[in-house]
Each structure stands twice: as structure tokens, then as C-alpha cells.
Amino acid sequence: MLDRVLVRKLKAPTKSVGGVLLPESAQKTLNEGIVLAVGPGRIAETGQRIDVGVKVGDKVLLPEYGGNSVKVDDEDLLIYRDEDILAIFEQNN
């Protein structure tokens, strides 16, 4: 709805590059996610639609706190407002 963004948060790796299993205390939390769905944008006081700044498939930087948790098909996802997304990571092709 409106300027909401549905995000799947990325999980930190549980193994090192060399294949060693990392204990939970050594695993970092990632504030990154992949955009799964976006709303059409919010409506300004003038009645003009303001488009959402991200698109489906974007890898984004998320705030440390915030977002609303939802469970969809046994998967934990987060909903953010468009303005809460901190950055979009550039995709290297």
C-alpha cells in the first residue's frame, strides 16, 4: 500500500571463506535486504503521486531498528516505508 516496501532481510554467512563454521558470537548481523514488492507511492497534499524510490529486486541498506515484521508462507519478511530505506546497493553486472 502507498509508499510501503516489502523486504526479505539477508542472512549473514555462517561459514568463513575457508569453510570454517562461525559461532553465533562471531556472525555479524546484516542490515541488508532484497526488495520483494513496492506500493504505487504516496499521495501528496496536492493530489500528485510521489513514486517509491526502490524497485523489486533492489538490494537495499536497512535501518538497524524499525520495520514491521510479517510472516508470509512461513517466511519472516519486513515492511518499511520508502523513506526509511537508507540506500540502494549498486548492482555489478
How is the secondary structure organized here?
Blueprint: E1 4-9, E2 32-38, E3 42-43, E4 49-50, E5 59-61, E6 68-72, E7 75-81, E8 87-88
Antiparallel strand pairs: 1-2, 1-7, 2-5, 3-4, 5-8, 6-7
Main traits of this protein?
93 residues, mainly beta, 10 Kd Chaperonin, Protein Cpn10, Chain O, elongated
Summed up, what is this model?
With 93 residues, the protein is mainly beta.
Can you put this structure into words, describing what you see?
The protein is mainly β and 93 residues long. The protein has a single domain, classed as GroES chaperonin (10 Kd Chaperonin, Protein Cpn10, Chain O, Roll), CATH 2.30.33.40. The chain has strands spanning 4-9, 32-38, 42-43, 49-50, 59-61, 68-72, 75-81, 87-88. It has a six-stranded antiparallel beta sheet, with no helix packed on it. Strand 3 (42-43) and strand 4 (49-50) form a beta hairpin. The chain is elongated.
Total beta strand runs: 8
At the fourth level of CATH, the homologous superfamily is: GroES chaperonin
Query: Helix content range of the residues, please?
Result: under 10%
Structural class: mainly beta
Q: So how many helices? A: 0
Strand content: 35-45%
CATH topology title = 10 Kd Chaperonin, Protein Cpn10, Chain O
